[in-house]
Structure formats: C-alpha cells, structure tokens
Design goal:
Elements (H helix, E strand, L loop, with lengths): L1 H23 L2 H24 L2 E7 L4 E5 L3 H5 L3 H7 L2 H6 L5 H12 L5 E9 L5 E13 L5 E10 H4 L6 H12 L1 H4 L4 H11 L4 H8 L3 H15 L4 H10 L4
C-alpha cells in the first residue's frame, strides 16, 4: 500500500513538471503536447476520484489544508472546502489528543530539513464523532521565495479499511518512530539498551547493578550517558521514549 502511495506521488510530481515545461514552450509545441498532458491529467483525476484515498496539499506553516480531492466528504464527513475554511482549528480539534503532537513533529521534520518525505500514523475524528485511523505520506511540494519549506503534497489512506496486515497499529507506530529516531537510537550501546529495559520496569540502580553484576557507579554512569544521548533529564521521559520506540 505504501508503495502505491509513493507511485501516486511520483505521478503527481511528473504532472507538475510537465505543466512547468508546457508553460515555457511555444504555442505550436503546446498544441502538440497538450494531448499527452490532458491524457495524464485525466488518468490522475480518475485515480484521485476512484481510489479510496485522500490526496491533499497542506500548509505546514499555518498547519492547514490548502487543497483536497473529492474523497474528503466520503471518508471524513467534511468536504475539503469546509476543512480549508476551518484552517488550523480542524487539526487542533479533530486530531486525537495523543496524536496531534505527531502532526506538529511532521511539520517540524520538513521545516528542519530532515528529509523530503514523511509518513505518519494517527487517529482523527469523523464528522459523526467516531475515531478513525489513518496513515499519511507527505512529500515536500513547494517552498516560500525565501527557501523555507511551505507546502507538502500528501496521500492518506484509512488504515483499518485499506491495510490488511497482521501487524497491529501500535507495532506500525513503533516501527515508524524507530525509523524517525534511528540516528539517536544507533548511538546507544548494547549495554545501554539492556539498562534501559531495566529502568523502564522501575528498577533502581542498585537492583540493576545486582542483576547485571556491575557496580552501582557503573550503572549511574550508563544512566547519565543515556540521558545525554537522548537529550532528556527525567526518567519519565526515558520511559516514554523507550515505549514509543519499542526499546522496552
């Protein structure tokens, strides 16, 4: 399914490039190539209206919808026009409280130039009040004149209807988090990963030291190094990170 999403994004990107080239050509060349372009447009239009996916463009600065395909009404109960009017309030009031921060992190991913493509799994409220699970893949689409990342084009699918897998939603989220935090996790040593598992269970430094046959001072040093590498200051933060990334 993710492969299909990426293919759709590639097709849209090709169409965008074709449109740009077309604007630079002479009238005669435009007439010749217009037939091919129209054929591509009609094909993508069929995909957007026929596939059970949402295709949309979002402003990551204003955290709002800029454009959406015709499937929004069917899948969310709202038309894309209604969501555009709601602006950033929609995501604040309709994303699950535990998942809204993931949307903010996705926007920061692009703003901080960490990459040009990002996948997010989350829950959002339908117009009828029910919670729905979605997975969205976003790609950087347009920058501000200053070069600042601005618009992303995205493909969204309803996971419980479209993903047939033995992997649970929590496992998918964990996998996504581990990929996102791979650079940080790779800095942890094998011994530190073992100690994290013990800390998460609530064991004291003394209990961990006795079980691993190490001194309390050694455990304290490892603990301090873990906190530095993860840029955290509290055990609760470590527990949350370990849980979110499957390190527990």
């Amino acid at each position: 399914m993710l492969r299909a999403i990426n293919e759709i994004l590639k097709d849209i990107d090709v169409l965008k490039k074709d449109l740009t080239k077309l604007l630079r050509k002479s009238d005669t060349e435009n007439i010749i190539q217009n037939f091919e372009l129209e054929e591509k447009y009609n094909f993508l239009n069929e995909v957007m209206n026929g596939a059970n996916v949402l295709i949309h463009v979002n402003d990551i600065i204003k955290m709002s919808l800029v454009w959406g395909s015709g499937k929004f009404k069917e899948m969310l109960g709202y038309t894309s026009e209604e969501l555009i009017t709601m602006g950033s309030e929609y995501s604040k009031t309709h994303y699950h409280p535990d998942d809204y921060k993931l949307l903010v992190e996705a926007a920061e991913f692009f703003k901080q130039e960490k990459g040009t493509s990002h996948t997010l799994m989350y829950r959002v409220k339908h117009k009828d009040g029910s919670w729905m699970r979605f997975i969205t893949t976003r790609s950087l689409f347009k920058r501000k004149p200053t070069g600042e990342p601005w618009l992303v084009i995205a493909v969204t699918i309803k996971t419980d209807a479209d993903i047939h897998t033995n992997i649970s939603m929590d496992e998918m989220r964990t996998k996504s988090n581990r990929k996102k935090n791979a650079d940080v996790i790779e800095k942890l040593t094998e011994k530190e990963l073992i100690i994290i598992k013990h800390i998460v269970t609530g064991k004291s430094n003394r209990a961990i030291a006795e079980e691993l046959g190490l001194s309390i001072n050694t455990i304290s040093v490892h603990r301090r190094n873990i906190f530095v590498k993860l840029k955290i200051t509290k055990t609760a933060q470590l527990v949350n990170f370990a849980t979110d990334n499957g390190l527990n």
